[in-house]
Amino acid sequence: MEGEHSNMMLPNKQVVFKNYVEGYPKESDFELRSSMISCQIPQRSKGLFVKNLYLGCDPYMRHRMSAHKSKDVALLVSFQPGSVIIGLGVAKVIKSANADFEEGDYIWGMTGWEDYSLILNPDGLFKIKYTDVPLSYYAGILGMPGLAAYIGFNNVCSAKQGDIVYVSSAAGGVGQLVGQFAKMKGCYVVGSASTDEKVNLLKSELGFDDAFNYKEGSDFAGALKRHFPKGIDVYFENVGGSMLDEVLLHMNLYGRIAVSGMISQYNLKKPDGICNLFCLISKRLRMEGFSELDSRHKVPEYLEFAIQLIRENKLVFVEDIAEGLENAASAFVGIYHGRNVGKQIIQVSTD
Amino acid sequence: MEGEHSNMMLPNKQVVFKNYVEGYPKESDFELRSSMISCQIPQRSKGLFVKNLYLGCDPYMRHRMSAHKSKDVALLVSFQPGSVIIGLGVAKVIKSANADFEEGDYIWGMTGWEDYSLILNPDGLFKIKYTDVPLSYYAGILGMPGLAAYIGFNNVCSAKQGDIVYVSSAAGGVGQLVGQFAKMKGCYVVGSASTDEKVNLLKSELGFDDAFNYKEGSDFAGALKRHFPKGIDVYFENVGGSMLDEVLLHMNLYGRIAVSGMISQYNLKKPDGICNLFCLISKRLRMEGFSELDSRHKVPEYLEFAIQLIRENKLVFVEDIAEGLENAASAFVGIYHGRNVGKQIIQVSTD
């Protein structure tokens, strides 16, 4: 490999961020560019040259497409117009100037939406240890979405056996895992999703006790009443906005709301106003945001936990795989319209 | 006493709730009624006949003046039009049919806004043990407001030395104590209030490091920037609404918001919409409502803690005492306009 690639220029397809977005992202906000990339790693760098295999379409990425100055969370810092999209993905090491990685290793972490990436600082990358599962899993169930579900459910929800758990965006990468973790804990789990197909998936494949299409009819309050006749003890929040506002009214005393995402809000100029926060007092609710970024040290623990369950078929994961960088933009845009069934992944190459 | 009062009818001034209120309560929503009350305790009741001394004007009471069905919190159940106002107060036992209380005991707990009350179920009442402090304190610093500050600060804020703490409605019955508890913990404490007089009180009497008049000028965001150049670690929430929305933007990573009250919202038909909840995720905030009602078992612990500090002048309490049931309505109405300086109390009688 070393000899084969060193100093070589390789054709490199890239998905480039065109300019700051307002409202929903459109395919035209991305440009597919053909260029060449040198596989030379700069001297004195401890970088890697990798071939990208799978890229995750993660809802948070929309924040990076707005012009703003976020100082609190690196993952929310705006993309530079004209630069390649960066996100969580799975790649294969082609060349390494880093003692922790070797040619041929598979890694996951932040990489570019392109055929090949030069990663100058591989500090945040993880080497993939188990390859007896689909490699794409490291952009989903075994990557950050999996960790988010694990951390969010275990550290924030304080769920106990018998609790009634509501998961929104339940067929998504995080939601489908939260539902399964909650079932393992002995909870009664209800999920909502945006199509009947996903609702069926939740009930037939993912082990949810109940599920509903929140877009069916206009009476979301009525749906909550029907599906939660005894109220909600734990709400795992992926949606935000008016859904959150209504859920607050259906929470039980001492309920907990783990705030993982608010996908309904990311494309709005001004977020929806939430009017029912007095429920926090009247019902003594705890509402807590979290980020799996704070728990990267838990990756090994989570990995051992999850890989075992996956091998035993006790934990399943539904992916929606778009093939080729040509389809990256439409796949990404689709997640904000609920077009994906399961975790949206872009397959750049299989190896 | 027994002989003196048994079967006797006594003249009894009462503050009666006229009808459900929309918007701000007005003095005309109350009626001062002169009636007679029998000091006879019904047979088989374990009740008390008490003389009311001090009544607390507590912001939550506004909820009871609206027509609604609250099932979660007894204290939020609507008053019946035509019935006497019920609230937390201090009283003296005139007659007792209960083994736990004797004639002459002082008690605090739920009582009526009237000269005398027949309390059929004294289960929730506390006998007053220490009378070397003003008895009115049991409607404030040594009663539920004190417990709210203690529980809210200690159990919800997770404050540590050096934390930057913001207390809104800081000159109120709860806020002034939270500020002092936070100082004892070694925090940097800033309070806001609605007049310069109260701001001075916070700085000169109540030991706040800094304080500001949030009604001065229209630039609340600018005020937060000036008074919290390093952001806010802990927000003790008494106000809600647009204040909360702005505070969210000024919270630091891993900040905590203890939600004790939302006085700005109680008179609105539709509460303000809070738009900045995404900060819960981006800053990993915890926002938690609580009620001192859940911690009544902590009353003895809190009492021993506070009484000692009061005796040593290490904990002070500012009261705003209105004299006479004639002034009850205006005192109560005043708290929603910030007219009280310190905890608003109604003195019915001194003994």
Automatic annotation (TrEMBL), chains A, B:
Q: Where is the Enoyl reductase (ER) domain?
A: 47-346
SMART domains found in the cross-reference section: PKS_ER
Q: What Gene3D superfamilies does the database record attribute to this sequence?
A: Medium-chain alcohol dehydrogenases, catalytic domain, NAD(P)-binding Rossmann-like Domain
Q: Which UniProt keywords apply?
A: Oxidoreductase
Q: Which domain of life is it from?
A: Eukaryota
Q: Which InterPro entries match?
A: ADH-like_C (IPR013149), ADH_N_2 (IPR041694), ER (IPR020843), GroES-like_sf (IPR011032), MDR_fam (IPR045010), NAD(P)-bd_dom_sf (IPR036291)
MF GO annotations: 2-alkenal reductase [NAD(P)H] activity
What PANTHER family does the entry give?
2-ALKENAL REDUCTASE (NADP(+)-DEPENDENT)-LIKE, PROSTAGLANDIN REDUCTASE
Know the name of this protein? Enoyl reductase (ER) domain-containing protein
Q: From which source organism is this entry?
A: Anisodus tanguticus
Upper classification of the organism: Eukaryota, Viridiplantae, Streptophyta, Embryophyta, Tracheophyta
